[in-house]
Every structure is written in structure tokens, then in C-alpha cells.
């Protein structure tokens, strides 16, 4: 590569996204006191640009505007320019995204916001094209107009920004109003089910026309709804909606049939043409959902998809020391000789490429059939490409194919006169050859930042899959990742989590000069992961750490006046608002996950005040839960867990005994949203016996592994056979 012409301060950062912009002709600052001081001293507006390293439109805006020398000069002359990686600083992102959504009705990345020198926003948007077009004003024009406004109407702008801030404070406040009890669980569940049912796509699954996101929180809600209404028509529909959605996604182009794992979302109704980036948080949640689907249905199809996701993460998103990387980009060079990157280049195929790779005649099939014919038919490949021009505005996928399973194995087998087993082997061979060919292409950029929150979601994915699929190697991978978190994303002296660490030189794990402290979501997702990991591994050390972190979360983020937790801690003068997230989206919101965490924490510790706190969170979100629970499906689900109280399934037995293992397998094979598992191994000096004195009174019946079902620390009669236990569960 040639020596870069420009280098700015971002060269000293660790975030892959900030480093991507280190050679722009823009004088970028990271989010820092140095930038704020400069804006105040020179009385300049701030231009804030927020994105992430695998964001397609962020790359487009960089290519068009931030690499343009003239536009760079306008930016440097009139503004102090700040770049933020939203994955590193979700707190900064949320404050200004709240503003952009409130003022423009939409949001997304790249986010472009103009702030006064004291950080108050007054105008914002997302992607801007560089020059004026028929429908959109160009970035250059916007920059010049805003600079002019600041020169001519400074006082009006400042006054306006103050009013905007007051309105945002009022709009974004979530607190208990008068009544302090949680909303009625039955109504919340029924409304949420009805709202999901109304927006459900009967043909293709999912909950919108397009774009379509995987949204695991919806599926998790439906599984819980089914478990509590198994015998009703609504319960049956909830299960059918969840399983059909998971099946259609797995068949679709959003699922990478050659390289495994799932892309971020589909641009169409059919799950066909995706935005090709792959995010760690999707893999973690989807691995858990497909494992749960297998646990409920017994259908191996779902187990296979869960294993496919975990293969991708183990192979491509894993750091050698045990952590998980954040994401893989959508854009890459089509060939080693290409000058510019294209979206999806790593994943798409021309028909002739596939024919050339799969020329073998297929014995026993209709005359003249090649492996290519069978493969192309099954995966919907067309000679002219299978991507509609409507879904390809920049013409990057012209003539290309995104693989999508168009017909069942039975139909493909019948079409070519093949046996099912034989067809499976042929398709496997086709995928193997395409995978080898794809390995020769230039790989997309990998964001090797490691985030505590997303590592938490992935640990839960491995732990839940390990338990439900009875695969010890997944549990071991989860243990390795939890040990990584403890070593690299936790400060034992302060007892606090850190947000992020990075893969540095020689693949060593590095920390930034001033480490970013953990946010609420880091605590919530890591605590959830540690509970899941205890249930899968039965190592009590993870429980002990989870409870310590829960105490720390309470201390840093709890709102004693209005209830529930703030997303960020107090005391950062550069943050205008302390917000509480109110939407379960691609990831669940931290308060939603915390409700269930608190109920589990209370069951493992005997601290009943945690149950009270869980109720207070639900009370704070009560209005939203009763009117539009579809925006909070994970919290709606938690209202049911709160209402039905968690049942402690206690297995008394020797962890190495075959009878104990059989009872544990039975517990792991049943999906029940309000069960949690305790292994009482008889070691009265262990952590759990110290926390829960009632365990000492439970004994093995006739020397055999014995199960008790306990609620509020009172227990059922003992059972010693897995069949009886299955019935109880």
C-alpha cells in the first residue's frame, strides 16, 4: 500500500472503526475532553459521526464524503469533527440517536449530528450523499448551511438546542408513576401475543414485510407463551409461528449455506437477499433459539442449525485466547485484483462458476444430470442471477446468486430420481467444493474488538446449546470464554466489568490507554451468561461471580427514585442524558434481561429483595408493557416468569454418578421458562450450601440421585426416576 497522505488522531485508537478513518483528510478527534475543549475555545460547532466498522452505508459515506479533500477542508475549517464507534460507546450513541429519531422520525447508521460547543444537538440525520440530488440535499450543502447559521443566528441556535434538550429529557424519562405494582402478567402476555400474531407473515415467517430482522426476542417470547398455554389454540399458534420463522430463516439467503452463521437482516420479505454483515450478538441469540426449538420439537433440523452457527463462531469469530470478535463485514474485494469492495462479494455466485466447480455426472439420476444441475435447482440458482434489481440499488449483485433453499429435499430428490440419503451426500459435496473455492477469495474485514456484553450473549448460546444438545464441547467453549472475560474484561480490584478489549500486535489482547468501563448491558448479559453457564457446567464459581456482579450493577445503575436501571452510570459530564432503553430489538434491552437475572439471583442466594427489584422494573415500564408490549417482548416474557415464580429443580447426587447424570439430562431435555437448576452434591462447605441453608435438609432417597421441585424454598416430595421428574417438569 502507498504511504497515506493524511493521518489524524484516530491513528492512536484501538477501535477498528476509528482506525478505518485514521487516514481521512478530516481532522477527526475521538470522543474526548481534548475535542470538547477545542470547540469551546474556538467557539466552533461539533460535527459528530457515529457508526461501526461493518456498516455498509458507513463505508459509502466515508468513500464519498470523508475521503473527499474539499469536503474535508469545509469540515476542518468550520467544525470540530468527532468520530464514535457505537459498539464502544453505546451511551453516546443512544443519547444522540434518541434526538435523531425524535426529530426526523427515523434513525440508523452512519448517524450524523451537529452539536453546540456544550454538546447539545440541534440538527441531525443519517447518511447524506456528497452532492445535492433530486430528492436529497447533499452533505457539502448541509455543512455550508449550518456553518452559516452558526455565524448569523448563534443565539437562536443555542436557545433552540436548550429547548430540544428539555423536550428530550421529558420524552425519554421512564419511571414509576403513582402505582408501584407490576402490570398484570396475563394481560401483558395476551396483548403481546396478539400484537405479534397480527404482524406475523403467514407464508415466510417473521414479523414485518421487509426489511426482516431475525429478532430472537420475539421467538423467545413465543416459546414462553407456548409453554404456559400448551393446551390452547393460541399456544399452538405461538409455537407454530416461532418454529416456522426459524425454518424459513434457515432455508433463506440470510443463512450462509456455505460458510455457516447468519447475516444481519434480509432486505426482502422472503429472507432471501441479506445485508451481508454477520454480528456476534445474532449468532449468540440464534444458537440459543435453535437449541430451544430442538428441545421443544425434537426435530434434528433445528439442532443442525444450532451446530452450524457454533461452527462458524468457533472457526471465524474466536480469538485464540478465548474471547469472541464482534462482527464480519458485508463488503469485500471480489477478486485479489479488484480495486473496489462490493457488498456480498465473498458470498455470492455466478451460475457458470457453480457449473465449473460441479461438472460431475450424477449416477442413477435422469440422463445427463450433473452435480451442478442438482445443486443449482435445490439452491435456487439462475443463469442470469437470482437477485431482483429492486433489492440491488447499487447494481453490486447483477448476474449473481444468493443461495436459498427453494424446494424440500423430497421434491429435489423426486425431480432427479434420487434417494434422500444420496441427495444429502451430493449437496454436502457441492457445499464442500464451493466452500473451498470461496476460501480463495479475499475475506471481508473482521472487527476484532471484543465486547463484554456480546461475549455474554455468545457464552449463553454455547452454554444453552451444550445443555440442550448434550454436547460437552460447547459447554467447555463457554467456560473458556467466561475465563477470558474474567481475565481481560474485569477489574478485580474495583470489582467492575470493562466494556471492550482488542486484538493487538502478534494477536495479543490489548486494552486502550483509558479502558472504557462496562455499561448496564455488559453487566446484564454477562450475569445472564454466568447463570446459563452454571446450569450447563454446574461449577459454582460462576454463580458466585454472577451474584457479585449483580450487587455491582445495583450500585452503579439503579434508579432509587423512578426504579429500573439507567443504561450508563452517573458522573460523566459529557453525557447529557442518563437513559433507560425501552425497546427489545436486535438485542434485548438490559432491563428486560435483568428482570429474569434478579429472579434467578434471588433463587441462588436467598436474597428476596432482588425479587422486589424485579417487580419494580416491571412497574417502571408498566404503561408500555400494557399498551405496546410488542416493543418489549423479552420484558413481557419476564412478567410471566415473575408472576409464576421460579421453581428450583434440586438434584441431590454425586456429580460423577451415572444416576445423577441421567437426572440432569432429563432436566436439560425439557423447556420450561420458569425452572432453574441446582446440583446439591452434599459438600456442605460449598458456596450454594452457605447461601441456601434449606439444601442441607434435602437428602438422597435410598442412596440414589434424587430430585426435588422447590418454590419459595419449600420442596415437593422426592422423586428418583427420570420419568417421574420429566412429568413434574
UniProtKB/TrEMBL annotation:
Domain of life of the organism encoding this protein: Eukaryota
Domain Spermatogenesis-associated protein 20-like TRX: start-end pairs: 7-168
Pfam families with a match to the protein in the record: Thioredox_DsbH
GO BP annotation list: carbohydrate metabolic process
Name by which UniProt lists this protein: Spermatogenesis-associated protein 20
Species in which this protein is naturally found: Aptenodytes forsteri
Amino acid at each position: 500500500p502507498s504511504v497515506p497522505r493524511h493521518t489524524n488522531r484516530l491513528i492512536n485508537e484501538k477501535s477498528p472503526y476509528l482506525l478505518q478513518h485514521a487516514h481521512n483528510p478530516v481532522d477527526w478527534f475521538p470522543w474526548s475532553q481534548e475535542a470538547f475543549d477545542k470547540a469551546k475555545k474556538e467557539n466552533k460547532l461539533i460535527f459528530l459521526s457515529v457508526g461501526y466498522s461493518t456498516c455498509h452505508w458507513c463505508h459509502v459515506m466515508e468513500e464519498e464524503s470523508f475521503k473527499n479533500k474539499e469536503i474535508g477542508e469545509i469540515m476542518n475549517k468550520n467544525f470540530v469533527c468527532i468520530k464514535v464507534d457505537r459498539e464502544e460507546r453505546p451511551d453516546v450513541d443512544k443519547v444522540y440517536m434518541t434526538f435523531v429519531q425524535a426529530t426526523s422520525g427515523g434513525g440508523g447508521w452512519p448517524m450524523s449530528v451537529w452539536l453546540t460547543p456544550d454538546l447539545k444537538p440541534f440538527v441531525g440525520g443519517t447518511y447524506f450523499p456528497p452532492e445535492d440530488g433530486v430528492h436529497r440535499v447533499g452533505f457539502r450543502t448541509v455543512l455550508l448551511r449550518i456553518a452559516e447559521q452558526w455565524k448569523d443566528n448563534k443565539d437562536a441556535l443555542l436557545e433552540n438546542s436548550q429547548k430540544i434538550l428539555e423536550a428530550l429529557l421529558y420524552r425519554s424519562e421512564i419511571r414509576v408513576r403513582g402505582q408501584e405494582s407490576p402490570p398484570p402478567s396475563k394481560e401483558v402476555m395476551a396483548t403481546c401475543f396478539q400484537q405479534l400474531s397480527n404482524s406475523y407473515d403467514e407464508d415466510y415467517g417473521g414479523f414485518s414485510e421487509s426489511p426482516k430482522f431475525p429478532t430472537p426476542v420475539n421467538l423467545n417470547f413465543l416459546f414462553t407463551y407456548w409453554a404456559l398455554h400448551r393446551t390452547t389454540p393460541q399456544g399452538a399458534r405461538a409455537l407454530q409461528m416461532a418454529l416456522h420463522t426459524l425454518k424459513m430463516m434457515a432455508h433463506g439467503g440470510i443463512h450462509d449455506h456455505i460458510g455457516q452463521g447468519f447475516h444481519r437482516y434480509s432486505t426482502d420479505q422472503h429472507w432471501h437477499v441479506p445485508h451481508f454483515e454477520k454480528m456476534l450478538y445474532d449468532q449468540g441469540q440464534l444458537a440459543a433459539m435453535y437449541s430451544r426449538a430442538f428441545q421443544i420439537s425434537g426435530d434434528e433440523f433445528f439442532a443442525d442449525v444450532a451446530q452450524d452457527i457454533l461452527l462458524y463462531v468457533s472457526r471465524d469469530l474466536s480469538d485464540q485466547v478465548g474471547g469472541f470478535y464482534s462482527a464480519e463485514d458485508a463488503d469485500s474485494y471480489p477478486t485479489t485484483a479488484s480495486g473496489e469492495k462490493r457488498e456480498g462479494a465473498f458470498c455470492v455466485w455466478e451460475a457458470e462458476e457453480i457449473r465449473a466447480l460441479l461438472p460431475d455426472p450424477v449416477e442413477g439420476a435422469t440422463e445427463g444430470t450433473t452435480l451442478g444441475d442438482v445443486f443449482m435447482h435445490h439452491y435456487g440458482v439462475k443463469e442470469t442471477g437470482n437477485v431482483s434489481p429492486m433489492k440491488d440499488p447499487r447494481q453490486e449483485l447483477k448476474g449473481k446468486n444468493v443461495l436459498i433453499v427453494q424446494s424440500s429435499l423430497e421434491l429435489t430428490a423426486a425431480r432427479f430420481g434420487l434417494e434422500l440419503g444420496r441427495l444429502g451426500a451430493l449437496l454436502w459435496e457441492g457445499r464442500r467444493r464451493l466452500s473451498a473455492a470461496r476460501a480463495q477469495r479475499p475475506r471481508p474485514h473482521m472487527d476484532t474488538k471484543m465486547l463484554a456484553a456480546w461475549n455474554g450473549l455468545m457464552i449463553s448460546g454455547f452454554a444453552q446449546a451444550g445443555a440442550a444438545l448434550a454436547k460437552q464441547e460447547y459447554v467447555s467453549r463457554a467456560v473458556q470464554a467466561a475465563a477470558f472475560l474474567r481475565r481481560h474484561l474485569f477489574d478485580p480490584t474495583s470489582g467492575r466489568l470493562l466494556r471492550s478489549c482488542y486484538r493487538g500486535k502478534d494477536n495479543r489482547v490489548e486494552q486502550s490507554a483509558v479502558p472504557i468501563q462496562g455499561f448496564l448491558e455488559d453487566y446484564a448479559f454477562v450475569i445472564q451468561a454466568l447463570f446459563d453457564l452454571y446450569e450447563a457446567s454446574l461449577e459454582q464459581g460462576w454463580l458466585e461471580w454472577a451474584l457479585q456482579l449483580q450487587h455491582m450493577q445495583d450500585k452503579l445503575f439503579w434508579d432509587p427514585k423512578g426504579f429500573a436501571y439507567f443504561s450508563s452510570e452517573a458522573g460523566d459530564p459529557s453525557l447529557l442524558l442518563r437513559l433507560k432503553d425501552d425497546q427489545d430489538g436486535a438485542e434485548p434491552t438490559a432491563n428486560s434481561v435483568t428482570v429474569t437475572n434478579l429472579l434467578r439471583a434471588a433463587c441462588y442466594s436467598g436474597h428476596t429483595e432482588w425479587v422486589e427489584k424485579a417487580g419494580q422494573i416491571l412497574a417502571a415500564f408498566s404503561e408500555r408493557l400494557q399498551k405496546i408490549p410488542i416493543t418489549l417482548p423479552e420484558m413481557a416474557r419476564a412478567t410471566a416468569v415473575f408472576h409464576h415464580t421460579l421453581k428450583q429443580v434440586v438434584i441431590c447426587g454425586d456429580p460423577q454418578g451415572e444416576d445423577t447424570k441421567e437426572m440432569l439430562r432429563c432436566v436439560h431435555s425439557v423447556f420450561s421458562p420458569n425452572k432453574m437448576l441446582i446440583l446439591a452434591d452434599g459438600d456442605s462447605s460449598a458456596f450454594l450450601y452457605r447461601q441456601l441453608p434449606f439444601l442441607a435438609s434435602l437428602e438422597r432417597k435410598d442412596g440414589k440421585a434424587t430430585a426435588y421441585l422447590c418454590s419459595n424454598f419449600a420442596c415437593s416430595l422426592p422423586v428418583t426416576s427420570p420419568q417421574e421428574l420429566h412429568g413434574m417438569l
